[in-house]
Structure formats: C-alpha cells, structure tokens
Amino acid sequence: MLLERIRLKTFGCFQQQDFELHDGINLIFGPNFSGKSTLVNAIFFTLTGKPIVPRVDASAIKSAKAYSGTAGLQFVVNGERYQLFRATGKRIQLRSEKNGAWQVLFDEKRVRVTEALLQERFGIRHEQLALTTFLREGEIFEFLARQSTTRRDILHTLLGIDRLIQVRQRFIDTRRIAKREQSRIRAHQNSLRFNAQSVNEAEITRIEAKLKDLEAAYGAETGDSTLIAEWVQHQNRLQKQLDTLTQQQSEALGGFKDIGQLREIITDIETAIQEASGLETKRDELIQQTGRLESEIAALTNVCNTLQTLIESDEQHCPTCYQQVEREVVQRIVDEKEKERSQRSAELETHKQTLETESENLKSRRELEQRLQTLQALSTQFQQRTKEIDKIQTELDTLTSRLSERGVQQSKQIPSDTLATLDKPQLKAQIDAERERLGKLKQEEAVRLDRLGALQRVNRDAAKVEKTLLSIELACTGIDKTIEALQRQILKPAEDELHHWLEKMQLFSVSRGNGGQTRVDLQREHLLPSLNIDGTDRSLMLLSGSEKMFLYLCFKVALAKVLGNPGFFVFDDPTLHLDGERKTLMVDFIHQLAEEHQVVVTSYDEDVRSGLEGAHLIEMSREA
Q1: Alpha helices for 146-278 (secondary structure H)
Q2: Nearest to 49 by CA among 17, 81, 14, 94
Q3: How far apart are CA 551 and CA 522, in angstroms?
Q4: Quick one: how many helices (H) and strands (E) in the chain?
C-alpha cells in the first residue's frame, strides 16, 4: 500500500485541506499546535475507525464546531488506486479508479460489515497497525515501562492468540465448574445407593389376600352390620379429611378465582422479569459512562486551569516545552476545552437522570421477583393439596363402592349400639394389625420407588457431566495445539527478521572472533524477557536507553514484516526527549527503513529536518 494523499474536512484543526505524500521519506515539519499529530491521527482513523490514542472517543477528533469530521486517504494497492473516506459519524466510503473516473465500491454505516470488507480486501487490522506500523509519541517508553506479562499480552494480540486464550480460559472455568458438579453428583449417588430389588411386592399381595379372607370371615361370623359400621366410620373420617384439605386448597389460592388465574399471573410476572433481564448490565454501563465523563470533565478542568494560568502569567515561554507562549492561540484552545467541558457536563447530567430511572426500574423488577416467589409457593402448596385430595378421594370412592354393593347409601346411618353386640374381638384385632402392616409396607414401597427414580436421574446427570468434561478436555487440547502452531509459524520468522535488523543497525555489536553472537528468544512465555549475548543472559531492563529504543524499533519492524506490513510506517515525533547522539541514530534508522518502505515522520526538530534532507517536506504552520 503506497499512500498518495491525505484529505481532511472539519477534522481536528483543519477545515478542508489536502496533503500530498511521496514514496520514500515524508517529513511533516512544523511547530507545536500546527496539526502534525492530526495528520498522523487522520491516517490511522481512516484505516481503522479509531483514534491513535487509546481510550479516546472518535467524536473527539472532529472540529469543535462541526457536526462531523471526515478523513480520507488516497493510496495504491497492487497497481490499483483507491480513495477511502471515513466520517466520525461512522459512515465509510471506498472508491476505486476505473478509466480515469472514481467509482464507489461501497458506502456504508454498518461498521462491522465495512471493517470485514476492508480487512478482506487490504488486510487492515486495528491492533496490527497500532503495534507494528504506527509509532505513537512516547510509545517506546510506555512499552519498556510495562510489566513482562503485559508485553506478552501485546504479542498475543498481534498474533490473534488473545481471543483463543480467552476461549480456553472459559473452557477451563467451565471444566472447573463441571468437576465440582461431578463431585456433588457422585456424593449424591453414594447417598442414594440401596437394594433396588423390591422385597415388599410379594408381601403386600399376600397381606391384601389375607385381609380379604379375614374381612369375609369377620362379616360371616358377626354379620355385615359390624363391617358396614366400620366402613361408614372410616368414610366419615375420610370425608372430614377431604373437607379440611379442600378448605386448605381454597386458602392456598390466596384470593385468586382459580388456579388458572394464578398461573396466568405467574406467567405474566415471569415474562415481565425476563424482559427486564438486562437492567443490571445497562445500569453498570451507565455507571461506567458516568465515571468516564466525570474523569474527562476533571481532566478538561485541569487543562483549562493550567492554560489559563499560563496566559495570566508573565512568562514568555512554556515551562514544559520551552516554546514561545502565544496567548491568542492558547486562549482559543482554552475556549475549545471549555466548550467541550460544557458538552461533557450536559452529557453527564443526562446519564445521571437515565441512571436514576434505570435504578427505579431495577427496584421494581426486584419487587416483582419477590412477588413471583410468593405466588410460586402458593401454586406449589395448591398442587400438593390437590394430590392429597385425589388420594383421599380415591380411597373414599372405594369405600362408597363397597357400601353400595351391600345396599347402603352414602346418607344411611348405622346404629351406634350395633358394635356392642359384636363378638370375635380377636378377629377384629387381627384385621386391624394386618391393615396397619399393609400401610407400612406400601409406604416403604413408595419411598423405595422414589429413591430409585432419584438414583436414575442422578445417574443420567453423571453421564452428561462425564460427556461434557470429555468435550471440554478435547476443546482445550485443540486450542493449545492451535496456539503452539501459531507461535511456531510466526515467532520463528519474526526472530530471524529481528536478528537481521539488529545486525543491520549494528546493535549489541560484540566480538565475533570466538563465534559470539546476540540472540533474542520470542517463543518464551514473556515477550523480550532477556537477551543472550555470547552465551550470557543480559536483562532487558539493564540495557542502555539507546539499546532499548532501537531494540523495540527493530522488534516492531520485524513483526510488521512477518504479520504483513501494508507497505509504510508512520512515526509521530520519534526524537522526542532524545539527545543529539540518539537523534542521529534515529535518523539513520529512518533512512535504512525507507530503503524498503514508505515512511511518514512528524517533527519540530531542526536537527531531524537537516538529517532527513531530500525527503518530501510538508511544512506546517499555526496560521494554516
């Protein structure tokens, strides 16, 4: 990709202006506040849709008085000329030159669609461009100040491994949860183990047959009146139980017309809760946005106060950069920052009102959840009473059927003195004993069947967990192998390219008489943990400032080549805070880089301008 032109409209400090770029070195030279970094930001924003400074919103880079800003690039790829325009309002347009005329290839507001098209056509990736092709102001020192684990994460982002690592971590977390569930299920299995073979069915059948004979004998010896009287008494007891349960069932409805109305209300509440399921996330996002706006307002306030102090002071030069203070320029900056702070304050108030509304909605949803729990408890209680009523009604129907067979209607009463004339008390006692034993056996059988069903369900759950664990293990193994393959395919060529640039820059030059050499291992767990010079490890943090700086630059160029550099590099003020010797080294590095790539450099340093003599010069001024 060869950049030919930068086109700006209401972008940063520019209203409408074009800048031509040439092959080789392009030097954007000018004083502070002249728009040099704006051009770098325009190139990066056009290609990626994001400002080059991390954690800055795209709307902040347009002109202060404009509704939207637009940045564009004209470039050549594989002999074809394109124009790419991107607005801060998220509209993207790509044109292609055909027979001397520009043809629109697409004009979209769908960010994901257009980003996918740009990546497929030109290989443009935000992370890759930010960390290999562009050098932000002060980026070298930011990188070397990071912890080694953070540098490793940057490398993982470049290689596309970061998402694989996130997926693997999710699988690991899922595996941990599955193992805990497996342990719980095994403990439950052990608690449910028992003899599944029924030992009571034959005994129940025997006792029921015996009871039938005893009742027949009891009726034959004492007359049917005694047995009928006993059945009627039992019928009355069951009827009382039935009446009590029916009353409790009615009370369980809690004022509802019927169970259908109760279930309908439960369904409505569940639907309302489901529709409000994202309130916590939305509220958390509002809290984060509120905090971000407060931080931005505080930062803008500090900037305004600092600049206002500089205007009101008698100093003729800035105490930080030692540039001459032009109060009119600084006052315009203060006015812009004040306006931006007012906009942020209005946005903050809107967010606070929205946050208060969402908090009330969340409170209402929690009240609905409590109401749902109460209604679900009522429904469960109603169902339990229904089961008990059905059981008693079945037994009552059986007794009624028996009485009907004997010619006794449900309303017929048996004289109470009939029992006084009965004999055979032993037969009666035996019948009662067998009934009691039969009831206990049936209860034990019901418990056994319930435990058997629970054990079968737990066994099914255990089989599912085993299958899930096996799938997770296979997935983790596959991801690990994919990561290893990516590292082997990319890091080894990156090491070779890095050593090529170290030798080209004559960095860490050592005596080669004994076969000594400098090696950097990128395939370790951390990025650039140490250097091996003549067989001795040398800590990265013990290198000199120049060695650190050029080691990082060589590393950027090496990764850029391996990962697919678009064909150019952009360095924003690379000699900032460097002494004269290091400036000379940086200029030499830019010359060598320009032998193979197009390079765009910004600077306000006259030494850089003289060192890059012959480069295509774009001279900037504050007045422009």
Answers
A1: 148-159, 161-192, 201-222, 224-252, 259-275
A2: 94
A3: 13
A4: 15, 14
pTM score of the predicted model = 0.49
Q: Tens digit of pLDDT for each residue in 244-298?
A: 877 777 776 766 777 777 778 888 888 887 877 777 788 888 888 888 888 888 8
CA-CA distance, 331 to 14, in Å (whole number)? Answer: 18
Q: Is the dihedral of CA 490, 495, 498, 503 positive or negative?
A: negative
Quote the CA–CA distance of 546 and 84 in Å, as a whole number: 38
Among 55, 71, 52, which residue's Cα sits nearest to residue 10? 71
Nearest to 523 by CA among 552, 493, 551, 548: 493
| C-alpha span between 617 and 624 (Å, rounded) | 16
Q: State the burial class of residue 417 (Cβ atoms within 10 Å of its Cβ: 0-12, 13-18, 19+).
A: exposed
| Residue matched to tokens 């005596």 | 511
The answer to whether 272 and 323 have CB atoms below 8 angstroms apart is: no
Label residues 505-521 b or e (16+ Cβ within 10 Å = b). Answer: bebbeeeeeeeeebbbe
Q: What is the pLDDT of residues 120-171, one digit of tens each?
A: 888 887 777 887 888 887 676 666 565 555 555 555 665 666 677 778 888 8
Residue 377 tokens read as 């408890």
Band (623; pLDDT cuts 50, 70, 90): low
Assigned token pair, 239: 């009827």
- In which band, very low, low, confident or very high, does the pLDDT at 582 lie, cut at 50, 70 and 90? confident
Three-class DSSP category at 569: strand
Q: What is the rounded end-to-end Cα distance, in angstroms, of the chain?
A: 29
* Plot region of 12 (φ>0 → left; ψ -120 to 50 → alpha; else → beta): left
Contact 94, 105 (CB under 8 A): yes
Predicted confidence at residue 575, as pLDDT, reads: 83
Q: State the Cα–Cα distance between residues 266 and 507, nearest whole angstrom.
A: 74
CB-based contact 273:368 (threshold 8 Å):
yes
* Lowest-confidence segment of 28-37, 279-288, 396-405, 602-611 by average pLDDT: 396-405
Per-residue buried b or exposed e for 228-245, using 16+ beta carbons within 10 Å of the residue's own CB: bbbbbeebeebeebbeeb
Residue 61 has pLDDT above 80, yes or no: no
Rg (CA), the chain: 42
